[in-house]
Amino acid sequence: MTHYTDKISIETSKTSKIDTVDFDNLDFGRLFTDHMFVCDYEDGKWQTPKVMPYQAMTFEPSARVFHYGQAVFEGMKAYKDDEGKVFLFRPKANFDRINKSSERLAMPAFPENYFFEGLEALLKLDSDWIQPGVGNSLYLRPFIIATEPAISASPANNYRFMIICSPAKSYYNAPVRVLIAEEYSRSADGGVGFAKAAGNYAAQFYPTSLAQEKGFQQIIWTDASTHSFLEEAGTMNVFFRVGDKLITAPTSDRILDGVTRKSMLQLAEDLGITCEVRRVTVEEIKTAAKEGELKEIFGTGTAAVISVISAFEHKGELFEIPEIEDSYAKLFKKTLLEIQHNISEDKHNWRYEIK
Ligand code: COI
């Protein structure tokens, strides 16, 4: 059946896959809900958006995205409380960021009303896919690709904005072991490191696969010019706890302005925990580890939530970080999840209810 809201055409799926899903055993990002949101940019403007059954799509082999990687994306989550109410977390931050990413990749800005109407329409249709309970969520992946069939190296005239949704539990099932980058770089001054550009992630796959061969799941990237400052891990921003104080790198044109990172800074203030936002060297962290002052490292991100980093290696030196009783990572994770799941007070107005 197709009906129209003010701006969106909605075609609902005749069948649902939901009964085939084992919600207790989800592999991150492999299963998608029954519907998706699609909006095309043609003739210089975004056309009427559609919600339609999740399905494969066809593109010409010459579509620019396949040749030049003109593509950006976002990561968001929807949560359900015990009464069945559905919430997003700080969605305006994702909306602002996708347009910032698009601008850097010479792509057109997406309209705010379409972004929110798309999210709302999808979440209403697929709300059964959001399981209640802390630890469950629906991961939302808005993205934009250059669809114009033309292979000259210039920005496309046609694009497709889409949102697909995938039920999610945790991204990492155990504490993460990381290698500190000594040779490869994720981003450079004046580059696209701050953007959620698809190519930023692809460029990490090879160095990360080398790290994985050595038993590390992720890399903590360092600055490209000296490899001495700690920046971010591929899927998360990173926080270091030295004594009772947290340190995280400032965002820059090389580092992603993470929504969870931003929220951590506010929660640290609320919880009375000092968090210094400043450049932090590998040497400082190694010295702190040797002196027993490095208490924790953790990563923050939408998919990763707050993931403990239990060991790091740099220049052949391995440092294990023993688990501690009064873990900030645990405290922040609980505090954050309780806000996201409508269990605790939302004093910063971060929740966005889908009504
Ligand atoms: C997210 O946390 O949403 C991300 O985009 C990271 C992704 C590579 C899973």
Automatic annotation (TrEMBL):
EC class name: transferase
Keywords: Amino-acid biosynthesis, Aminotransferase, Branched-chain amino acid biosynthesis, Pyridoxal phosphate, Transferase
InterPro entries: Aminotrans_IV, Aminotrans_IV_CS, Aminotransferase-like, B_amino_transII, BCAT-like_C, BCAT-like_N, BCAT_family
Keyword check for Transferase: yes
GO MF assignments: L-isoleucine-2-oxoglutarate transaminase activity; L-leucine-2-oxoglutarate transaminase activity; L-valine-2-oxoglutarate transaminase activity
Modified residues (N6-(pyridoxal phosphate)lysine): K196
Matching PANTHER family: BRANCHED-CHAIN-AMINO-ACID AMINOTRANSFERASE, SUBGROUP IIII AMINOTRANSFERASE
Reported function: Acts on leucine, isoleucine and valine.
Protein name listed in UniProt: Branched-chain-amino-acid aminotransferase
